[in-house]
Amino acid sequence: MKKLDIYILRKFIGTFIYSISLISIIIIVFDIAEKLDDFLTRHAPFKGIVIDYYCNFVPFLVNQFSPLFIFISVVFFTSRMAARSEIVAILSSGVSFRRFMYPYMLGSFLIASLSLYLNHVVIPNANKTRLRFENRYIHGQYHNNNINIHRQISPGVFIYVEVYHTESNTGEKFSLEEMNGQKLKYKLMSDNIMWDSTKKEWRVYNYFIRTIADDGSEKLSAGPEKDTVINLKPSDFAEQVNDVEAMNYKELNKYIDQQRMVGSSNILFFEVEKYKRTAFPFAAFVLTFIGVALSSRKVRGGGTGLHLGIGLLVAFSFILFMQVSTTFAEGGIISPIIAVWIPNILYGLLAFFYGAGCT
After folding, report:
1. Mean pLDDT in residue range 236-249
2. Whole-angstrom Cα distance, residue 7 to residue 215?
């Protein structure tokens, strides 16, 4: 690397770290002010607030805002270089615009690589602790408000619960059906079902069982209560949509397969989350290229302020486009993988054509 590369890379990384640190501190201060009543009301320990919550909240925060502040950082220090005629001097010395972009792309590569690592390894593990803390000291115990719950718990095995109470791990109007193709093989119905935490199995009350043999003969049985093994856990009724934030790539793929089997309505949301973890870091390259192409020209009126204003408009339009496209994906209008990559592709084309005018 030449002195010019080191100079630009140091400016890039230094400005990014300074700006993302500043906004993180501001957000944390406002977050503390907002959640202080919850911390005091639920007697959250100071160590838990600092270590379990905010130390695990910072990686999520940094990664969430990294594309925006990559862009702002690039626009800020590049426009200052342009205002001081440094870029004119660099290009006049025989350095091509493409060669001038090398340290910017290297900086983007370093930040995007870190973002990928955070998305797939660090943040899911950090979110396990953070979400557990939130559920205990901020949101309180989860209450299941779903009624008429239908699930496929394994191939050909279906359950129905009219109401499930997560506080007592009990359900009302429970039924289980085991199918052999299109034919009913086994059916269990009960007025109530309760999880026995000691035996790690379910107990059904006022049950009725119907078993159908291959020859068509039926066997009926009934009773006041009975212990039974069902491929179902109380946690299956307490899972929330944001639980996927605490899953790494392998766990998320397995979870999506399970939810597809049970017929979950949130499959598209889970797939968007999976693809976004890879697509989002690549926005660093696109926004960096646009930022350099936008701010490397010296402007007589406005200077850095004008560049920052236009830059913020472009950055927020990118984020808005990302949100709109993922909303369309979650609504089933477009494919999740297309939805999360299309902003990168379209703004990448914009960067290419705009950058071509600078060469």
Report:
1. 73
2. 83
pLDDT score, position 78: 86
- What Rg, from alpha-carbon coordinates, does the chain have? 28
pLDDT at position 110 is 92
- 25 exposure class (CB count in 10 Å sphere: 0-12, 13-18, 19+): exposed
Dihedral angle, C-alpha 32, 35, 37, 38, nearest 10 °: -130
The tokens of 171 are what? 């359900």
Strand-by-strand arrangement of the 183-196 sheet: 147-154, 157-165, 170-180, 183-196, 201-212, 218-228
Q: Is residue 334 a contact partner of residue 345, using CB atoms and an 8 Å limit? A: no
Give the start-end residues of each E strand in the chain: 147-154, 157-165, 170-180, 183-196, 201-212, 218-228
Q: Each residue of 61-73: pLDDT tens digit?
A: 888 888 888 888 8
pTM, two decimal places: 0.72
- Specify the residue for token string 């943040």: 123
| Predicted pLDDT at 109 | 92
Helix 303-330 vs helix 336-356: crossing angle, to nearest 10 = 150
Strand partners, 159: 151, 176
Please report the pLDDT score of residue 313 as a whole number: 79
Cα 246 from Cα 239, distance rounded (Å): 12
Q: How far apart are CA 342 and CA 233, in angstroms?
A: 39
Residue 355 identity (one-letter amino acid): G
5: left (phi over 0), alpha (psi -120 to 50) or beta: alpha
